[in-house]
Amino acid sequence: MTGEMIQIKAKEFLQKRYGNANFEYNFSIGWLEQLKARHEIKFYRRFGESGSIVMENIKDALPQIRAKLENFYWKDIYNMDEIVCKQIIHWLQSN
């Protein structure tokens, strides 16, 4: 979850709590940093950089992966790229 996502959720919570109140609250970078410090929220990278992938290892593994996929129907195989994964993670974290 990114800092921007936290700021967006904070705005949504404020809207739900107070409805259409006549005040504007700025969930600034400073606000975000104080929130993270107060609640000891840390940033961790789940996955490394895509540049760290060794293409030779992928080429060696492809025949094994294809052999395993032969046991499944095409309709049961999902191809999830990075954007789809991020959208699913965002959806799961927001629900």
Automatic annotation (TrEMBL):
<dbReference type="Pfam" id="PF03221">
    <property type="entry name" value="HTH_Tnp_Tc5"/>
</dbReference>
<protein>
    <recommendedName>
        <fullName>HTH CENPB-type domain-containing protein</fullName>
    </recommendedName>
</protein>
<feature type="domain" description="HTH CENPB-type">
    <location>
        <begin position="1"/>
        <end position="45"/>
    </location>
</feature>
<keyword id="KW-0238">DNA-binding</keyword>
<dbReference type="InterPro" id="IPR006600">
    <property type="entry name" value="HTH_CenpB_DNA-bd_dom"/>
</dbReference>
<dbReference type="GO" id="GO:0003677">
    <property type="term" value="F:DNA binding"/>
</dbReference>
